[in-house]
Amino acid sequence: MPNSRELAIIVYLIFLLAFSCCKRELRECVVTIVKSFFSKALLPIWLSCFFYFLGSVFVLYEIGLWEFSLATGSVFWFVATVFYVGNVISSGFDVTRLLPFLKWQVVFFFTLNFLMDFYPLPFFWEMLVLPLLVFIAGLVAVAENDERHRGKPVHTFFLRGQASIFYLIFGFSLLGLVVNYGQLLSLEGLRSYLMVPVFSVLFIPFFYFVSAYVRYEGLILVYSFYLEGGVGWMLTFKTFLRIRFDYQLLDEWRKHANREFTLSTINSEDDVVLRLDEFISDRQNDYG
User: Fold this and answer.
1) How buried is 17 (Cβ within 10 angstroms: 0-12 exposed, 13-18 middle, 19+ buried)?
2) Which terminus, N or C, of the chain has the lesser number of Cβ atoms within 10 Å?
3) DSSP string of the chain?
4) Which pLDDT tens digit goes with each residue over 77-93?
5) Closest Cα partner for 84 from 58, 53, 62, 115?
């Protein structure tokens, strides 16, 4: 069952959706965003993320680390993770970004979000505080992007107001944790507390898959532009056998192939593989 904060978020989302449907411009904007989000290129990634999430839930349920009372928190975690997957798609995920991801998950969800959701405000206060926080956050964003107000007293005032509301909510949640610490030590409390780090660790292989998929998809687009008969799965497989997860090599080959194929004629997939072998050989000689 959703808590008061989650219910308030759901109510405001429904309200915003209904309001956007009443305005033509907003309705067209929402439709455009939805179409872009579920485009042909991105839909396989979202479906893979969803089924990977369901598989993770099933595994945790079978070993006793997940139960249906955690469904709401799991869904909210999944939605936030989908946005992070979008960031992975736009910038690429590698080992150097693994630690920041885990740090973000642990600090934000594992601690702050868990404590603040474990003891939320009453529903009436949540309905009042949420739009106030969103309004102040919008003012802070405007001030930070306007040189006339950035760093000025009005900017500082809104920042302090935002921080004060956050600290009040966090203090209320922390007080609830101290008074009712027995709930945290219960089996359900421990499951809720461990849900985020367990899901985060389980999703690490998926992030590697998404990064590899997106990078190879960009290379396949280069292949398809110069090969008249399209790109077969065998060419993709041969390319993967030679490059695998060396993303630096993959990016260098994609740029080189785009230049090389423009200046010369590519007659078949075998020509592509031959050029790739030559490129890897020359690269190895250059790096000695």
Assistant:
1) exposed
2) C
3) ---HHHHHHHHHHHHHHHHHHHSHHHHHHHHHHHHHHT-TTTHHHHHHHHHHHHHHHHHHHHTTS--GGGHHHHHHHHHHHHHHHHHHHHH---GGGHHHHHHHIIIIIIIIIHHHHHSPPPHHHHHHHHHHHHHHHHHHHHHHT-TTTTTSHHHHHHHHHHHHHHHHHHHHHHHHHHHTHHHHHSHHHHHHHHHHHHHHHHHHHHHHHHHHHHHHHHHHHHHHHH-TT---HHHHHHHHHHHTT-HHHHHHHHHHHHHHHHHS---SHHHHHHHHHHHHHHHHHH--
4) 787 777 766 665 555 55
5) 53
219 in Cβ contact with 227 (< 8 Å):
no
Q: What angle do CA 175, 177, 181 make, to 5 degrees?
A: 130
* Longest pairwise C-alpha distance within the chain: 74
Encoding tokens for residue 216? 């190879």
Q: Is the dihedral of CA 169, 175, 178, 182 positive or negative?
A: negative
Note whether 1 and 123 are within 8 A (CB). no
Task: Kindly tell me the sign of the dihedral angle through the C-alpha atoms of 279, 284, 287, 288.
Answer: negative
Over residues 14-26, mean pLDDT: 75
Cα 242 to Cα 129, 154, 280, distances in angstroms: 55, 57, 8
Q: Give me the amino acid identity at 129.
A: V
Boundaries of every domain in the chain:
227-286
CB 243 within 8 A of CB 253: yes
Report the C-alpha gap between 190 and 202 in whole angstroms.
18
For the record, the structure tokens of 261 come out as 């194929």
Q: What is the pLDDT of residues 257-287, one digit of tens each?
A: 888 888 777 778 888 999 999 999 888 887 6
